[in-house]
């Protein structure tokens, strides 16, 4: 199929001159790496029809003019139902870029079992030290502490730059547990990490209770909540990308949330296989891990 786009020369990222057409080309090229992480998950679009300096909005629902070939799914919500798009093909990614989408956020469960996630996420952003949020060392330290706490209950985790300000630590799950169990486990891990490092990390949601400590955020682990899809571009200067990493890359002094972008991601992938290539085959039981955690309390 050939997806025709209008205004392909419209500049979406003024700092680099990246156009809508350039962005569409990126998503078509990255699709083989990105789609395994996004397929069959309701997607929320971050749309910037006039580029990152223009008006923007979040969109969940399929619009009436979207073509019939674009996959979609009906999602239950508190006050009824919502029809959302799926990005199950490179053509879908390109078409939605044509609608002004820059970033793609997906649910932690697939549409066939929305109450049973196959991903658990810890969202780690820099602490606010009087307005200075550029120090990435606390984020790296938090990611390693979360990884170690997960390993203590025999869980393997993966790490990714968010492309925005922090890191995501992700645990692949086998979909045996529901969101209530997964959220209970994630919060218990976060509390264990915070208790072990009380001066560095906290589970306090209220900013005025954090006292400059990094917040171990587990709130994404809920029905219909989303996280940025691996290899999604973020609407930030330089077109940074949410990029899966190997754990040893956190030792790189140049690592940061926007280390990889549209301009260098394919050079990286030519030199190193995607660290998340087999994540879908690594599903683990959150219920058993929670039992192990309680037994060791």
UniProtKB/TrEMBL annotation:
InterPro entries cross-referenced by the UniProt entry: LigD_pol_dom, NHEJ_LigD
Domain of life: Bacteria
Pfam families: LigD_Prim-Pol
Domain DNA ligase D polymerase: 19-276
Alphabetized NCBIfam families for the sequence: ligD_pol
Protein name (record): DNA ligase D polymerase domain-containing protein
Organism: Salinisphaera hydrothermalis (strain C41B8)
């Amino acid at each position: 199929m050939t997806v025709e786009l209008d205004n392909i020369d419209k500049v979406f990222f003024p700092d680099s001159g990246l156009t809508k057409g350039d962005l569409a080309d990126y998503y078509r090229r990255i699709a083989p790496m990105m789609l395994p992480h996004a397929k069959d998950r309701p997607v929320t679009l971050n749309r910037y029809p006039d580029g990152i300096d223009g008006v923007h909005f979040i969109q969940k629902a399929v619009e009436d003019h979207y073509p019939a070939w674009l996959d979609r799914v009906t999602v239950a919500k508190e006050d009824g139902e919502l029809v959302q798009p799926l990005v199950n093909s490179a053509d879908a990614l390109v078409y939605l870029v044509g609608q002004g989408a820059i970033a793609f956020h997906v649910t932690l469960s697939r549409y066939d079992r929305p109450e049973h996630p196959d991903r658990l996420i810890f969202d780690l952003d820099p602490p606010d030290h009087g307005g200075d949020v550029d120090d990435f060392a606390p984020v790296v330290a938090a990611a390693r502490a979360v990884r170690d706490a997960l390993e203590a209950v025999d869980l393997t985790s993966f790490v990714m730059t968010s492309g925005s300000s922090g890191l995501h630590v992700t645990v692949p799950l086998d979909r045996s547990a529901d969101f209530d169990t997964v959220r209970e486990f994630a919060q218990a891990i976060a509390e264990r990490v915070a208790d072990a490092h009380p001066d560095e990390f906290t589970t306090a949601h209220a900013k005025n209770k954090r006292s400059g400590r990094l917040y171990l955020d587990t709130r994404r682990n809920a029905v219909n909540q989303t996280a940025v899809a691996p290899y999604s571009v973020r609407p930030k200067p330089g077109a940074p990308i949410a990029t899966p990493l190997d754990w040893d890359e956190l030792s790189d002094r140049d690592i940061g949330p926007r280390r990889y972008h549209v301009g260098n991601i394919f050079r990286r992938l030519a030199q190193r296989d995607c660290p998340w290539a087999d994540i879908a085959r690594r599903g683990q039981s959150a219920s058993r891990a929670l039992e192990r955690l309680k037994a060791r309390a």
